[in-house]
């Protein structure tokens, strides 16, 4: 196997003998095989000559392509058997299109045996792309597409779709087997960012299904009844579970990125939605055994569970783990959560982690409602600067940098955040500036879009360019959704983004050079030095 798609990749280079995330060789190779076959399907679909006899309706195919590519994102699916099925599905979709005369031979790839997949690494994995820069650019594109598929599946679940985004996913996948210059491949990566803007706007719109978020203090204690812990990002799953647990005596708690649900008015009406339990995904091995009840994974980030609570893991959507109960979607889009509810009834109430309450819900509507006050505070020099510290949390000790950075900020600086990175500093009690909290949390990682909307609106009112605002970006990344968010920020014209704790391993020296020269992208260093670089002190 060779995988370098996340920030925790082995030695900062790539995982080759099992993933740091717990993904084994065979699953990693099957994921490569699925990605390879997806590119063949996309190529066949895109390059058919006029008049070719192609599948008439691709609604199911498109939905599966999105869900399957999402399944290959870090910490989503560790179940090799699921990837075996996915591979067959993709190959059957691909072979429903006529062969194209002169198509690359990869388009008709059929594995001879399982051995062919789990040992053929170089042939179907990204290392098969020999040119370093070509590989770097296609990797960035593929990772951005994985993030796009994650977000698309959430929007789709709430009834929001966009054929232009789906077309781009096929276009990007097909490019693997097409001949392109480095300039063209660079343009495709940037186009992925442009499509990311559309994607994040679509999801922003979709999430309004539950009402506009308001700045909300979320209870982080526990009740006396048994509970189900819901983690991941899929609000529709949470809604369905809340409906099915009504009156059952089972409480529901959010975890990690699900925190934002409490700020949506439609979720506030459930009196068995008790609060948020624990911190970010990175601490689940410590926190989940204390929860007592079962845990529902709706998306990433799943850390392979120890025996202690393995039997309490339930998965749904693209998530998978061998041995865990998977709750499938029915033809009408509903899901039957009775098995997890039955297990919860037999469990003890959660153990109190004694964590303080936290505030979330500072999306663009909530923050822009306070725009006059914010502008007044800027004019009075009581707010000197904003720093976007959105992104991910992770397991490595070096991420203490983000806690230290938040602590070291002058008191007239406001943090704008989204994603799970916030758990590194959202309990620091950084106070407020005349009623405006110093940590404004827009919500999930996709809500980084909200932060840019806020910045663009402030720039408009102040009649300036977004890059001339007193605004710095110090982003933490971990997995491929963060890659899409990063490309989206570039597409929105944001310059001088600082990124850490490490740069993506797939970025070649030449590609890095482009990112630095064209966009001023910079790696983080030390708190002290970065405060200066970002014009904070
Ligand atoms: Fe990922 Fe990052 Fe949103 Fe976290 S981009 S790691 S679980 O912020 O959440 O999905
Ligand atoms: Fe390694 Fe990350 Fe890939 Fe897992 S997802 S195998 S940790 S690079």
UniProtKB/TrEMBL annotation:
InterPro entries per the UniProt record, alphabetical: HCP/CODH, Hydroxylam_reduct, Prismane-like_a/b-sand, Prismane-like_sf, Prismane_a-bundle
Keyword Iron included in the entry's annotation: yes
Positions contributing to hybrid [4Fe-2O-2S] cluster binding: 233, 257, 301, 392, 420, 445, 479, 481
EC class of the enzyme, as a word: oxidoreductase
Primary localization: cytoplasm
A Pfam family it matches: Prismane
Cofactor(s) this protein cannot do without: [4Fe-4S] cluster; hybrid [4Fe-2O-2S] cluster
Catalytic activity: A + NH4(+) + H2O = hydroxylamine + AH2 + H(+)
Coiled-coil residue spans: none
GO BP terms, alphabetized: response to hydrogen peroxide
EC id: 1.7.99.1
Modified residues (Cysteine persulfide): 392
Subcellular location: Cytoplasm
Family listed: Belongs to the HCP family.
Function summary: Catalyzes the reduction of hydroxylamine to form NH(3) and H(2)O.
Protein name: Hydroxylamine reductase
Gene: hcp_1
């Amino acid at each position: 196997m060779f995988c370098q798609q996340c920030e925790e990749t082995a030695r900062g280079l790539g995982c080759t003998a099992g993933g740091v995330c717990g993904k084994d060789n065979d699953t990693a190779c099957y994921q490569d095989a699925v990605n390879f076959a997806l590119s063949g399907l996309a190529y066949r679909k895109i390059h058919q000559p006029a008049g070719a006899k192609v599948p008439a309706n691709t609604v199911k195919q498109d939905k599966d392509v999105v869900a399957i590519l999402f399944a290959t994102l870090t910490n989503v699916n560790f179940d090799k058997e699921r990837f075996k099925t996915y591979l067959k599905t993709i190959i059957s979709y691909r072979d429903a299109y006529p062969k194209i005369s002169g198509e690359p031979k990869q388009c008709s790839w059929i594995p001879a045996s399982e051995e062919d997949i789990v040992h053929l690494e170089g042939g179907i994995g990204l290392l098969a792309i020999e040119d370093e820069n070509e590989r770097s650019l296609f990797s960035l594109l593929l990772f951005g597409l994985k993030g796009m598929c994650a977000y698309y599946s959430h929007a789709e679940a709430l009834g929001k779709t966009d054929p232009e985004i789906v077309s781009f996913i096929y276009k990007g996948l097909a490019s693997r087997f097409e001949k392109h210059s480095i300039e063209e491949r660079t343009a495709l990566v940037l186009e992925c960012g442009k499509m990311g803007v559309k994607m994040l706007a679509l999801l922003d719109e979709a999430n309004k299904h539950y009402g506009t978020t308001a700045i909300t203090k979320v209870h982080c204690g526990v009740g006396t009844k048994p509970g189900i812990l819901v983690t991941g990002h899929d609000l529709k799953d949470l809604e369905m579970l809340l409906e099915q647990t009504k009156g059952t005596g089972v409480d529901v708690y959010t975890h990690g990125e699900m925190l934002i649900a409490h700020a949506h008015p439609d979720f506030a009406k459930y009196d068995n939605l008790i609060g948020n339990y624990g911190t970010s995904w990175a601490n689940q091995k410590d926190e989940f055994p204390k929860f007592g009840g079962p845990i529902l994974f709706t998306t990433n980030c799943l850390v392979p569970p120890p025996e202690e609570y393995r039997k309490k893991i339930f998965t749904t959507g693209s998530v998978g783990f061998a041995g865990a109960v998977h709750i499938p979607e029915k033809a009408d889009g509903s899901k039957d959560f009775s098995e997890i509810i039955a297990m919860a009834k037999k469990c003890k109430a959660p153990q109190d982690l004694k964590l303080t309450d936290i505030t979330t819900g500072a999306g663009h509507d909530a923050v822009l409602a306070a725009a006059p006050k914010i502008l007044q505070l800027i004019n009075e020099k009581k707010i000197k600067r904003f720093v976007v510290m959105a992104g991910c949390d992770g397991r490595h000790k070096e991420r203490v940098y983000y806690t230290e950075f938040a602590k070291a900020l002058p008191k007239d600086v406001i943090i704008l955040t989204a994603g799970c990175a916030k758990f590194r500093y959202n309990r620091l009690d950084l106070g407020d500036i005349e009623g405006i909290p110093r940590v404004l949390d827009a919500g999930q990682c996709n809500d980084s879009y909200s932060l840019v909307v806020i910045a663009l609106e402030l720039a408009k009112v102040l009649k300036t360019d977004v890059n001339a605002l007193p605004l710095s970006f110090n982003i933490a990344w971990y997995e491929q959704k963060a890659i899409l968010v990063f490309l989206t920020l570039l597409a929105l014209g944001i310059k001088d983004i600082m990124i850490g704790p490490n740069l993506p391993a797939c970025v070649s020296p030449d590609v890095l050079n482009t990112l630095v020269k064209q966009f001023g992208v910079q790696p983080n260093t030390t708190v002290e030095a970065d405060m200066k670089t970002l014009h904070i002190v």
